[in-house]
Amino acid sequence: MSGIKTAKQIPVVCRSIRKYRERLGIEQKELARRIGVKPNAVSNWETGFSKPNIDLFLPICGALGITLYELFDADDPMLRYSEREKLLLDKYRSLSEGHKYAVDKLAASLGYVESLEECPDITELTYFSRSLAAGVGDPTDFEDEGEPIYLYSSELVDSADCVFSVNGDSMEPDFRDGDMVLVQRFPDCPRLSEGEIGAFIVGNETYVKEYREDGLHSLNAKYKPMRFSDDESVFFIGKVVGVLDPDDIASDEDVNRYFSLHRPD
Predict the structure, then answer these.
(1) Which of 21, 77, 98, 245 makes a 20 to 30 Å CA pair with 222?
(2) Nearest Cα to 140, choosing from 230, 202, 190?
């Protein structure tokens, strides 16, 4: 039985390999494949019959998702506790289980409050993803047809009132199919000057076009200008102030945190 090693005799590196492999939930042969060694090599390491060569330490750490400090079961000097932290830890350990529970709840509550305070500002606009029909009376009174979209606040985002989707390639290269454009609604925005881009309703369709005296123009030269007779109705929705960056769309987590912090009392 002299060839069998006890846990204390197995080198710490070998014990760590087994510990973190099992924690990761992978087989010995899978770890061997990730490192690039024969399957029996991992078995020999974990039983202490052999140790990995020093040039394999970093590949092992990479395969297991650990640091060299963890591989050698050593303290990371970058993670040392301050004297204040040590004092708090000693005090915590001296508490009863009930008081420890109270401290845990307080720490969790404070952490939640801090996470809310770090939440970025959110702006709510109206998003129109489909064609709009001109209404009776005020033809651009179509808020009920849109849905809220939550964006990270910025000077550009905050200058807009709503978001429209671009359909087709008529406004390439500046506006591509599927782009979402930020629009400042009329009358908050001034009327368009020659060459500016706006959103318009023509019949039951919305268009993003360049305004000119003789009609609405596309940026793509293969499309003819849209010109209208006196009997046709063209309604100005607002000025396009920019293209929405997809990264400006707020995550559900940030939206929930923001409104949890700013909800009415």
Answers:
(1) 245
(2) 202
- Asked whether 173 and 222 are in contact (CB, 8 A), the reply is no
pLDDT tens digits, one per residue of 79-119: 677 778 878 878 888 888 889 889 888 888 877 666 655 66
Q: Is 56 within 8 Å of 45 (Cβ atoms)? A: no
Tokens for 213? Answer: 């005296």
Tell me the three state secondary structure of residue 133. coil
**pLDDT value of position 60:** 95
The residues, ordered by sequence, that sit 6+ positions from 161 with a Cβ below 8 Å of its Cβ are 125, 126, 183, 184, 185, 188, 238
Residue written as token pair 């409050």: 113
Task: Report the DSSP pairing between strands 197-202 and 205-212.
Answer: antiparallel
C-alpha–C-alpha distance, residues 155 and 144, integer Å: 26
